[in-house]
Specification:
The structure is a homodimer. By secondary structure, chain A is α/β, with parallel strands linked by helices. Chain A contains 13 helices and ten strands. In chain A, strand 3, helix 4 and strand 4 form a beta-alpha-beta unit. The first copy, chain A, is globular, with a radius of gyration of 18 Å.
Chain lengths: ~325, ~325
Amino acid sequence: MFRESPREPTHDGVLRAAGKIAALLPPTPLLPIEIGGVRIHAKADVLQPIGAFKIRGAWHRLTDLTPHERAAGVIAVSSGNHAQGVAWAARELGIAAAIVMPADAPKVKLAATRALGAEVILYDRAGGEDRDAIANALCDERGRVLVHAYADPWVIEGQGSMGIEIAAQLGREPSRMVVCCGGGGLAAGLALACPGAAIHPVEPDGWDDVKLSLERGEIVRVGANPPRTICDAIQTPSTAPINFAVLKRRAEPGVSVSDDEVRRAQRFAFDRLRLVVEPGGAAALAAALAGKVPLDEGTVVTLTGGNTDAEAFAAMLEATAG
Amino acid sequence: MFRESPREPTHDGVLRAAGKIAALLPPTPLLPIEIGGVRIHAKADVLQPIGAFKIRGAWHRLTDLTPHERAAGVIAVSSGNHAQGVAWAARELGIAAAIVMPADAPKVKLAATRALGAEVILYDRAGGEDRDAIANALCDERGRVLVHAYADPWVIEGQGSMGIEIAAQLGREPSRMVVCCGGGGLAAGLALACPGAAIHPVEPDGWDDVKLSLERGEIVRVGANPPRTICDAIQTPSTAPINFAVLKRRAEPGVSVSDDEVRRAQRFAFDRLRLVVEPGGAAALAAALAGKVPLDEGTVVTLTGGNTDAEAFAAMLEATAG
């Protein structure tokens, strides 16, 4: 399913990505919050221009394309945030982009990706279509480069730039990062960025393939009939060898969170941080609030995305009332 | 109604305040937005620890109290954001604070002020009680310093620190600042901060006393039966001489916005910036979106507060659907 990677992601690559990102975008805020009497920080990457951290990896990948590759264009696969990251970077650089997206992605994500000028190709996630197979076929057919959402060394390094920013903002390497985890691109990138930090991947209940993979020491896919989750952004069937190679060395045991725990985290972000955080972007905060990960003063939780339909957000506010 | 001020606010005072704020709090993001094809910026002061810019003036004022004044404590008057600013600064500095607040203030603002350790004294805004008279009497009775929400040179200078931050972030003085305006503390502070910038005060329809005062060249109070407004934070009956002295020299003609225009701005901030902005904090953006102020590439709109009850925010999302 995953194509072989041309190289491994490295700490130096993360630093190079961080330099490119710093020249492009101001650092997103690192906001103090208090949970159970412990003062930690939340990294507000929902404030990126596309409303998600995915702009980092996309920028690092697309700016490293050869002139020939730029002319051919790129293909990406995404439930919506990586789609917008690739579409944004492609528009800035004048590169053609086609994105394979699930037909049931949030409407705001489909609309935003199209508004950025990308071609959107829908697939049937619920029906079990293999999005990577569709994308690989498109790449072969059009002679384009695949920009995978997580199984790509540039994407991993680019996401890792968040860790370099966090360390600069804290004035020291964080002791612990609690990370929203789909395919493991951000978790692997942060592990490479901050060699001394404990990395806690957080997944939705029933979509905890990284947690299971870490327990078994080999990549495990989610089961045949996974439950529904509101965390569309991190609803990923499995991690990839290039991500797992980093995570199996570096990650702490994984944890998973329920939809209700995620909604409580979204509400916390609304009340205390005045931030709109989508479900998948609130998973790490949910784990911290639910007491599922240890917290100390050097802990940072990632708020990775804020692209949510208004109806879903209003329903969350109602569900968490009182 | 307003006590005589001990001194005038100055540009140097704004710079001194900006230095104190910079040592305390990281700059809030200056986010690019596009309105009608013009790329402007929004200053996200909703991301301050108390969710509003009022922390600036409160910090500048309380840190300049004499030891005797610190020991006696402070009194403030506020619909909620200045209350939290004073309560936050007082807690940090170990100063007793009592805040006179309208009984109909948003519940989140009353709760947050109490949570910061301040004593809350309620008054009947709807019934027309004079909050300044209550506060002045309390100051005399307890021998405390009044920290007025806008009629105070330190408060004006402290709010003005936002302008110094904006200029540093833009790399030049903004050409134009569109400012949510209640009593005129922020508008006067920004005028002092950026002597070359056009200052556009924005008020709620029917609460446009600053607009009328600028037109007539003298301070005018709102009419006897002003309409309801959702902008509780800037529902202020009149500006004060110390503010008007600056504004009559420096402000552009005032504009006012309707509740519907404000809701559209809140929705824009939700969709495009992933920020929770309260009605009064969205007034400047509302004026920009409604075409009521000129826009150019050096324009900055202030997003001044994000403290809103969840039910009101959900209702806004529903009202702005489709």
